Amino acid sequence: MNLSPQRLLGALAAATVTIGLAACAPPENQSSGEQTESGVNAAEATSAEDFGGMEGLIEAAKAEGELNVIALPPDWANYGAVIEAFGQKYGIKVNSAQPDASSQEEINAANQQKGRSTAPDVFDLGQAVALANTAMFAPYKVQTWDDIPDEYKESDGLWVNDYGGYMSIGFDSAKVPPVTSVDDLLKPEYAGKVALNGDPTQAGAAFSGVVMVAVSQGGSGDDVAPGVDFFRKLKEAGNFLPVDPTPATIESGQTPVVIDWNYLNAAETKKLPSWQVLVPENAAVAGYYYQAINKDAPHPAAARLWQEFLYSDEGQNLWAQGGVRPVRADAMTEAGTIDKAAAEQLPTIDGPTTLLTQEQTDAATKYLAENWAAAIG
């Protein structure tokens, strides 16, 4: 699916790491039975009105006192500032687990810790993993629901897109020749230097990275085979580096070329002056992450308050300040509530942009599950 640039995403700054959560012999969940003002179980509330309004939701969340998040590095989309602001605003302790986990590992953790007080309350997932696990989500509509375009949310509120960006190639110009296209990565100068952020069968960034490469090689959202074939060639040439990149590997020089979201690559330009970022002109691939509430959340009221915060003007502007395009950007721009300075730093892409539909994502997921390991094994 192609979207116009003004409906599209942004770039500039962000990256990765976070706080921590103990996982030994966690106590059983004691909080999911709380009743709202209207008599609805907090775990079944579908809007703030079920709590009697925002004041009731805030009161219920404060009574729970904690929120468990997972796979949210503080430098990723400005999540460090988001977590801090939420905690300070409501006096709720945010337990942040496994900051470098993949989307699939979020789901695995929820299944493994189901019924425990340490289970994730909320998810932030790549498209493929999110759409494959909707049975684990609780429907909820935030107060700003009407500002979110229909194509970026499930009609009952099982999931909502939160922020987005473009796939890109980041590279250290002090260590490798400038990358001008995806095809450059097959050149001998990049031997052992090209890393992909994660496993595309588990991680949203890596999944979209393969899609970007596929489009650059004549493929499309309907055909990711050319992307898998390119990575096979990259491996055969000795250029593929099987290391998950992090800010530490980038800054140490271990991963001098990284295929990742543009906002994550762009974050490194602040720390490493020689780091540059390319969004291939012939392969602009956009993607939003998916926000959802765990239906078995140990802190169901806090989980719903977290969603309200993320989709409020304050939360959306914190994401914009992290270099990503918040899903309510158009509505906030029209209302005059967007952080103008941050919004001006979110570039658009001229020309066609690929954003996969659910059907395309399902087909690509299946193809990767059947072919990726053989290609890079």
UniProtKB/TrEMBL annotation:
Asked if the Swiss-Prot or TrEMBL record annotates the protein with the keyword Cell membrane, the reply is no
Q: Which GO terms describe its cellular component?
A: outer membrane-bounded periplasmic space
The Gene Ontology biological process annotation of the record reads: thiamine transport
Task: Give the molecular function GO annotations.
Answer: thiamine binding; thiamine pyrophosphate binding
Tell me where the signal peptide lies.
1-22
Q: Where does the source fall among the domains of life?
A: Bacteria
Cell membrane recorded as keyword: no
Keywords of this entry: Signal
Residue ranges, annotated region (Disordered): 97-118
- Skewed-composition ranges (Polar residues): 97-116
- Pfam family name, one: SBP_bac_6
- PANTHER family given for it? ABC TRANSPORTER SUBSTRATE-BINDING PROTEIN (PTHR30006:SF2), THIAMINE-BINDING PERIPLASMIC PROTEIN-RELATED (PTHR30006)
Record protein name field: Extracellular solute-binding protein
Q: What organism is listed for this UniProt entry?
A: Mycolicibacterium tokaiense
Q: Top-down, what is the taxonomic lineage of the species of origin?
A: Bacteria, Bacillati, Actinomycetota, Actinomycetes, Mycobacteriales
